[in-house]
């Protein structure tokens, strides 16, 4: 919050007060210009705690002016009274103040509970906290643009923007339109190139990034997180060299946030299919490009670090870079999708373009490639494996033991489990395969999943549910039969722990050998009989990459 420019008021926590006949308290208050965040923390059961707070939150949202009036005069909260007099009164009217409740829970809050607060409370879930923590560490105050969208406050209503009714709601840039004939992209995919000052680009940009806060349907999720050392190095370059980066930025632009005009300022209107409603030129067309002055409308596919090197910070470079930010121009190559293009097709295009751009740079990590595969080819074995991992982490013996977010430590990494444990076990592409669970799945429609044109997501869901059930059953028995000290992830502080990628892949290989040799799996009681003495087995005699040998040895000793 400090990195984004918020001030934390002291002496708030633990002060009980009565507001509108309701006794309550506040854990924290953060203020940035005209935005006031009433913040609540909980590390216990969020459901009951949240419902107890509902009456108080409803009173806040019922009349935010009355609540602010109360805070500014409440003697039990002197720090708000002082801050209000010094930094708000006479600068912003009560109508210009924006109040939001920010609810922060370490544990997951059910959708059922969240639905009670659809139009009020902002849920700052733990993985979202970690996401913004990483982003704000890298780009400091420039992260406020994305954060304001997250807390549902339009940037036009933040700070001095709310007073500036005369300011333009858009900017116009000189550029060019590249038709499909010159780009060889699909019909309706227009490419526009234009120069834009770094400050204006920062205000409008977001990154197509894995583990962001937006829903997958609205944003791709495969980019790396911003790397602070890389950005710091680029800021030093800007400071020392005093010149712009010459590489172009690759981006997608929301078509409803952009207007195009020819060199004579005549409007160029794009139809639903991405073609101009007037005559379409097959040549590069000089154009004026008008873009709304809104946050998070330009999605960066490549060039995120070059863009965010200009971020607003408090380091030794800021004084000079603050001047460069509004002067130096970056070349943006933007993709305009046809309005009638599906979200899935857009995600596929963006993800494939990301892979093309990075093909000749440092290798894209396997976990990112798997995320991309999940988006562009949901029926592949890789995608199926990825979904299984997510479901195993939701409940059962591996519940919350699998690494889903970059900040999680001492959890099972997924890439190798998917590649070497799950893909051989769940594959459907190899018709001759007899070691895949697909070969014993009793579903009359299963052969449809082999079709190249398959789109039956309901059938795929059934197959995945079958796979998760079979894998979870054998894992349940391993957990039952192994001591508690062993059923935990291995780490220097937990050396007895057996849960490693090698162990999980070894168990998956046991299941694969059962299918291959006996064309069946077992029920839970049969597994219990077979694995009755598994706690005596020396798992650690196999090296980290020997999961196939581990599986074969367990199978030979306990199942033959």
Description:
With 560 residues, this protein is α+β, with helices and mostly antiparallel strands. It has three domains: 7-162; 170-358, no CATH class; 377-558, no CATH class. 38% of the residues lie in helices and 15% in strands. It has 19 helices and 16 strands. It has helices at 46-62, 64-71, 78-88, 111-114, 126-139, 144-150, 180-183, 198-204, 228-241, 304-308, 318-325, 343-358, 366-376, 381-394, 415-426, 457-481, 501-518, 524-530, 547-558, and strands spanning 7-8, 17-19, 22-24, 28-32, 35-42, 98-105, 122-123, 170-178, 190-197, 205-207, 249-253, 258-261, 267-268, 285-292, 298-302, 329-336. The strands form three sheets. Strands 10-15-11-16-9-8-14-12-13 form a nine-stranded mixed sheet. The longest helix is centred in the C-terminal third of the chain and has 25 residues, at 457-481. The radius of gyration is 28 Å and the shape is globular. Mean pLDDT is 86; it is low at 216-222.
Protein traits:
9-stranded mixed β-sheet; alpha+beta; 5-stranded mixed β-sheet; about 550 residues; about 40% helix
Mean pLDDT: 86
The total beta strand count reads 16
What form results from the Cα inertia axes? globular
Cα distance, first to last residue?
Answer: 59 Å
Task: Report the β-strand fraction as a percent range.
Answer: 5-15%
Number of domains: 3
Count up the helices.
19
Largest sheet: 9 strands, mixed
Helix content: 25-40%
Structural class by SSE content: alpha+beta
The side-by-side strand order for the widest beta sheet comes to 10-15-11-16-9-8-14-12-13
Stretches where pLDDT is under 50 for at least 5 consecutive residues are 216-222
**Any idea what the radius of gyration is?**
28 Å
């Amino acid at each position: 919050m400090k990195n984004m420019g918020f001030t934390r008021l002291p002496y708030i926590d633990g002060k009980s007060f009565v507001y509108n006949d309701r006794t309550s308290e506040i854990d924290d208050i953060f203020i940035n210009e005209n935005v006031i965040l009433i913040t609540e923390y909980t590390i216990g059961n969020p459901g009951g705690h949240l419902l107890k707070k509902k009456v108080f939150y409803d009173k806040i949202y019922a009349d935010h002016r009355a609540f602010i009036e109360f805070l500014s005069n409440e003697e039990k909260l002197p720090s708000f009274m002082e801050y209000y007099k010094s930094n708000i009164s006479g600068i912003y009217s009560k109508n210009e103040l924006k109040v939001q409740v920010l609810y922060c829970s370490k544990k997951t809050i059910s959708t059922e509970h969240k639905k009670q607060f659809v139009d009020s409370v902002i849920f700052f879930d733990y993985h979202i906290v970690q996401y913004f923590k990483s982003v704000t560490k890298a780009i400091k105050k420039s992260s406020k643009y994305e954060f304001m969208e997250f807390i549902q406050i339009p940037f036009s209503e933040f700070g001095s923007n709310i007073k500036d009714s005369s300011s333009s709601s858009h900017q116009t840039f000189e550029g060019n339109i590249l038709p499909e004939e010159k780009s060889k992209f699909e019909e309706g995919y227009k490419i526009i190139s234009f120069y834009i000052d770094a400050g204006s680009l920062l205000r409008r940009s977001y990154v197509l990034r894995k583990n962001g806060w937006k829903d997958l349907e609205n944003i791709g999720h495969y980019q790396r997180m911003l790397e602070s050392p890389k950005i710091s190095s680029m800021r030093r370059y800007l400071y020392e060299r005093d010149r712009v980066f010459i590489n172009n930025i690759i981006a997608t632009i929301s078509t409803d946030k952009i207007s195009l005009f020819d060199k004579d300022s005549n409007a160029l209107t794009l139809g639903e299919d991405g073609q101009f409603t007037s005559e379409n030129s097959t040549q590069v067309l000089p154009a004026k490009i008008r873009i709304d002055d809104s946050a998070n409308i330009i999605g960066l596919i490549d060039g995120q670090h070059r863009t965010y090197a200009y971020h607003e910070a408090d380091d030794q470079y800021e004084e000079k870079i603050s001047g460069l930010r509004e002067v130096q121009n970056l070349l943006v190559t933007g993709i305009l999708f046809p309005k009638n293009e599906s979200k899935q097709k857009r995600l596929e295009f963006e993800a494939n373009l990301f892979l093309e751009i990075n093909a000749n740079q440092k290798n894209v990590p396997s976990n990112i490639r798997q995320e991309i595969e999940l988006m562009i080819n949901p029926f592949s074995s890789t995608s199926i494996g990825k979904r299984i991992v997510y479901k195993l982490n939701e409940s059962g013996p591996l519940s919350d033991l699998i690494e889903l977010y970059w900040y999680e430590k001492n959890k099972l990494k997924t890439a190798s489990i998917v590649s070497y444990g799950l893909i051989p076990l769940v594959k459907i592409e190899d018709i001759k395969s007899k070691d895949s669970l697909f070969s014993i799945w009793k579903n009359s429609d299963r052969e449809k999943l082999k079709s190249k044109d398959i789109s039956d997501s309901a059938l795929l869901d059934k197959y995945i549910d079958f796979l998760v059930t079979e894998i979870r059953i054998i894992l349940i028995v391993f957990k039952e039969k192994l001591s508690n000290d062993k059923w935990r992830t291995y780490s220097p502080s937990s050396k007895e722990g057996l849960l490693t990628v090698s162990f999980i892949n070894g168990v998956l290989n046991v299941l694969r050998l059962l299918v291959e040799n006996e064309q069946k799996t077992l029920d839970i009681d049969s597994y219990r009989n077979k694995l009755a003495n598994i706690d005596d087995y020396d798992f650690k005699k196999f090296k980290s990459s020997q999961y196939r040998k581990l599986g074969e040895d367990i199978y030979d000793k306990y199942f033959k």
